Amino acid sequence: IAAARGSAHEGQAGGTTVALPSAQKIAHGSTGMTVTKLLSAKEILDASDVDPDLARYCVLTAAEVTDLLNSTEVKSADYNTVKALAEGKLNTFCGFEFIRTQRLVTSGGVTYCYAYTEAALGAGMGDELFVDIGPRRDKRMATQVYVSGSMACTRIEDEQFVEIACQ
User: Which pTM does this prediction carry?
Assistant: First the structure.
């Protein structure tokens, strides 16, 4: 989440920081999550010629799920083939698979949700994992498993990532 919201790094050595462009952000407009905001996120991704076959995800909190479940388009069988209110959960809508978490950043009463494709974020390992398994003499020879590694994550395709602010 921190890597998605933070500045990406570009260049051969990764020395240039790049903030998410304002064209990839949807303002809160003093409302929570709405179908209009989801459609705007979809439009931003589609307008960037994002491959329609890539899986699309929307990460939001319980409050935003409630906002969407209260909207007519989500709870009506005329708009949605999944009976969201009967199930009590929201799996997919507008081509997005929803991931609910309470770990999103909230600042000044605004929660920042994210819509992105599977190719928007990347993870890398700086080196191979170091693994050591052996006895600990200070713990009555109990076996200890020690693993360390260097890993990082960043946005790699800004065009495939949208930040949605919700009041």
Answer: 0.77
